[in-house]
Amino acid sequence: MDKLTYSLAKPVQFTPTRLIEDLSFRTELTVRELRRLEGQDSNVGATVALISILSGEPAELIDALDSKDYYKIQEFLLPFLKDSLGDGMI
């Protein structure tokens, strides 16, 4: 399973002792993980859940990202996830 690393343009101080400067992502999803995306109320919610699943980080951390990083992460992951997600998710 491949891993990709994205360097945040704006690091996140997630906890007093944890500064997030990079996020690492898996590039494969299981059907169980895809099913977790179905229950989301919005496209943003599903994308936050997807980024959380692939990075192994809590959704609260993804929520704390700068919006520019959030959109760049989507662009960064798209080429690797097109086969898994089709055209509808990211």
Automatic annotation (TrEMBL):
Domain of life: Bacteria
InterPro entries to which the protein is assigned, alphabetical: Phage_tail_E/E (IPR019289)
A Pfam family that the UniProt record links to this protein: Phage_TAC_7
Name the record gives this protein: Phage tail assembly protein
